[in-house]
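User: Structure please.
Assistant: Input sequence and predicted structure:
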Amino acid sequence: MNLAQQQNKLGTAVDLSKFARVSLCHQPTPIEPMKRLEAELGGPNLYIKRDDCTGLATGGNKTRKLEFLVGDAIAQNADMLVTQGAIQSNHVRQTAAAACKVGMKCHALLERRVPGQPDSYEETGNVLLDKLFGTSIEFRPSGLDMNAEAEAVVEKLRAEGHRPYFIPGGGSNAIGALGYVSCALEIALQEEETGIHFDWLVMGTGSTGTQAGLVAGFQSSGRDLPVMGISVRQPHDRQVGAVHKLVNSTLDVLGHSAIPASKIHVDDGYVGEGYGITADSTLEAISMTALHEGVLLDPVYSAKGMAGLIGLIRQGFFKPTDNVLFLHTGGSTALFAYEDTLLNYQK
């Protein structure tokens, strides 16, 4: 069933066909029960949405966003994608692969955001794949406005005769968020087809585009499924503000009314010492999910999201009968950059 047929079946007023788009993603991604993890934690009913299986360059959530971003780049006759992220950025890896897929070049700025890492941190995992995809890379110290840095590089490249297209960190703008508007429609259709209706969706939230797209998609389609974002970097109020701003920008692009900030749910209790720095709860989540479900989480995003889900269950946040969906945003390639930390925890 194609997107137009999905929309017709759901009776929504969401029309994504008017936006430029390129096919990059394996979809729909499956929703699977997590019965062993559910039993270990004593409920509620746990499910996982496998957006680590989107297909492009080992998969991940950014691929959905890139369908619209790269579509827009092609519409603007670009010959190069320019973006930015942290050293082990899943977004940069998928952007690099998308550029290869459509015959463009890719240039990336990588921020040395995570302190105290060995030299191998800049050589393995996602960085290795960035290079395999032919990405030209510049490094930046921590603390800069990385989007501004990348936009300055875009101007330089344009002056040199290139036709660069700028993609913000995480692909998180109103165009990129359309990928998760589409995913929200996909989840609603899967609910209808399976008869399993979710009470909460839980996910790791960082650059905001995934959570914002889901909230905008559920709101605009009338589903109104609450999305709990487990922050991987920002404190609660800043993350809520950033997500809320992008939700309303996305709703505006879709032609729908804005929503209040009270619709945005964020838990910042699992950030630990900062972005990309593993807390004990992060490592527990990686280990528990691997050992009970055979699913690999990444140390930066999905494991902190799962740590939040585990913590909320232990706090009694959910009803025992709730159906809770965890969105796996991918990123297991980054595990190789954290080898020593992971092996020491297993001991």
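The chain has a mean pLDDT of 95.
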